[in-house]
Write a structure and sequence with these properties.
- With 285 residues, this protein is of the alpha+beta class.
- It folds into two domains: 3-153, no CATH class; 167-283, Immunoglobulin-like (Sandwich), CATH 2.60.40.
- The protein has seven helices and 14 strands.
- It has helices spanning 7-32, 37-46, 53-62, 67-80, 97-101, 132-140, 142-145, and strands spanning 3-4, 108-111, 114-118, 124-127, 151-153, 167-174, 179-190, 195-208, 211-214, 217-229, 235-248, 250-257, 262-273, 276-283.
- The chain has a five-stranded mixed sheet with strand order 1-2-3-4-5.
- Strand 13 (262-273) and strand 14 form a beta hairpin.
- The radius of gyration is 19 Å and the shape is globular.
Length: 285
Amino acid sequence: MLEFDDTAHFWSVYDCLESAVSDHIDEAWSLYGSYGLDAMNDSLDSLGFYDEYPLYMFETSLGFNSYRKLIWDLENAWLASGMTGLDPDDVDVVGDAVLAAMLNSQGAVMIGGVIHYVDPLGTWWKILNGDCSLLALLISSPDAAALDSNVWTYKWTPTGECSFGFVDKNHQTWDNNKKKLKWKHWHAYSSIDGEWVYTGLQKTYRRILGIWFRLQVSHNTKVYGIATYHNCYDTLHYSEVKVRPGSSCRSEARHSIDYDRYKSCDPRAEFRADGALVATNIQCL
């Protein structure tokens, strides 16, 4: 697993990788964006364009098998099988490609001597003493590992009408079912952020002669809603938008909420691709 000095170091590397991905995509868009959607994708496919290439190079330079690569490979197998079998979105509990590139294939990273680990159910754990043998136990037998005082996870039971912990996902097609947008909207506590994080993720695909491929298209992903104080009266309106005008096959928006002060009653997401709203507001109460 990768090791970072502290959270500032971790997020500075995150920002650097995110900028590298944006620059890589922007360059492709500047060269081929005027071609039109299908012609642009034909050209990029013929060149073997890989919009997450900077993340791949980051992993390769470190000889590192990441969580991002795990999901990417699962998606390749899913596309090769005609979108049948295991849907990678049913496995992906991170949703952020840059963040996933910094986690190992089991979903772990060490920051300031503390191991942060996200399990297959999306629960984040901390191993406070950085003991890798405890991580192995947590992966194989979480109930047993949780008895150790160095193993920590966020626990809070909501009361009243406010709640948390939803996952909502679906898809929508356009262009006579030749193009597809898949979206997923969820929130969970992140030990790295130290807060609850709302994530909206969308991916786009196109079908050619019955075979599905990733579709590079302009994206706009938005998470927004109202968070209330624990008394369920005082409110905070929040919004986070991720716009990817270039040739990307995915985008995600993340917004964090401090649940020691708030709990959410009305989280929503909005997804746009190809300049049109192809998935309307998703409201999860």
